[in-house]
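Teaching soon. Got one?

===
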Amino acid sequence: MKKIISSWIGIFVGCTILAAGFVYFINPYNLVPGGVYGASIVLHNLFPSIQVGTFGYMFDIPLLIISVLVLGAKLGARTIVAALFTPLAMNVLSLLSYPSEEAL
């Protein structure tokens, strides 16, 4: 039981650290990594009224559905929770962040 709880805590902490990295270091300076969140940052710059995490959901949910159809239902609850918690953490942290105009 302790191992299961520590595993879930690790997932939530890791997702929060990933989200904080995007919100505090990547998004403010218009750095664009690859993948789902890189595309989300590009779309956020085109449509600033929609948060990066919301675009992340727009990409993650269809990809999760396709992966369950292709790979089967044994994809894992941890994968689904992590894919859905990361954009949520990004949206929450972006509400808490102070926008800085200074360059690195």
The two ends are 44 Å apart (CA to CA). Residues 2-96 form one domain. The first helix runs from residue 2 to 26.
